[in-house]
């Protein structure tokens, strides 16, 4: 059989066999293998970068030298009002000295998520905003790059100010608001107050002792 005779025969055979599905399957297999290899090759450095970022973030809400343990390893998972809460336990010389955890409340354009640290007495050590979608130039003053407003929570507790004063000044509270953006600071105040309530309710579970 000549070459010209074999070509039509091959074309006819290709039409009768599942040629295209087999070809697509082979391509998909190759693509899947490549993606799996790329994932395996990058997951370790990505995880390392995420761990580094979390360590830096945790350090921002704790005073320098406050804790000497690995906050990423000393964690407690607890049920919060909006789901599971990961609490990072701060220790010094083996003894619990505080806790760091996330809390969130609805702002103007979405949830405002903050990371806050408290000592064993329930006094705020530091607060930082992790995520928000508030209006640039107004609500974004909750970021430390725009203002130091967030630092006003340091030293506060459920006893100072009194519960009725945990609000912005427009609502009769002690915290400043922003011109044209009261909803955003109100959400942060509520989030921090909620975090203090959470710590007070779970203090023994977090620290492993009695109040």
TrEMBL record:
<comment type="similarity">
    <text>Belongs to the RnfG family.</text>
</comment>
<keyword id="KW-0472">Membrane</keyword>
<dbReference type="GO" id="GO:0009055">
    <property type="term" value="F:electron transfer activity"/>
</dbReference>
<protein>
    <recommendedName>
        <fullName>Ion-translocating oxidoreductase complex subunit G</fullName>
        <ecNumber>7.-.-.-</ecNumber>
    </recommendedName>
</protein>
<dbReference type="GO" id="GO:0022900">
    <property type="term" value="P:electron transport chain"/>
</dbReference>
<keyword id="KW-0597">Phosphoprotein</keyword>
<keyword id="KW-0288">FMN</keyword>
<dbReference type="Pfam" id="PF04205">
    <property type="entry name" value="FMN_bind"/>
</dbReference>
<feature type="modified residue" description="FMN phosphoryl threonine">
    <location>
        <position position="182"/>
    </location>
</feature>
<dbReference type="InterPro" id="IPR010209">
    <property type="entry name" value="Ion_transpt_RnfG/RsxG"/>
</dbReference>
<keyword id="KW-1278">Translocase</keyword>
<keyword id="KW-0285">Flavoprotein</keyword>
<feature type="domain" description="FMN-binding">
    <location>
        <begin position="107"/>
        <end position="199"/>
    </location>
</feature>
<dbReference type="GO" id="GO:0005886">
    <property type="term" value="C:plasma membrane"/>
</dbReference>
<keyword id="KW-1003">Cell membrane</keyword>
<comment type="subunit">
    <text>The complex is composed of six subunits: RnfA, RnfB, RnfC, RnfD, RnfE and RnfG.</text>
</comment>
<keyword id="KW-0812">Transmembrane</keyword>
<comment type="function">
    <text>Part of a membrane-bound complex that couples electron transfer with translocation of ions across the membrane.</text>
</comment>
<keyword id="KW-0997">Cell inner membrane</keyword>
<keyword id="KW-0249">Electron transport</keyword>
<keyword id="KW-0813">Transport</keyword>
<keyword id="KW-1133">Transmembrane helix</keyword>
<dbReference type="GO" id="GO:0010181">
    <property type="term" value="F:FMN binding"/>
</dbReference>
<dbReference type="InterPro" id="IPR007329">
    <property type="entry name" value="FMN-bd"/>
</dbReference>
<feature type="transmembrane region" description="Helical">
    <location>
        <begin position="21"/>
        <end position="39"/>
    </location>
</feature>
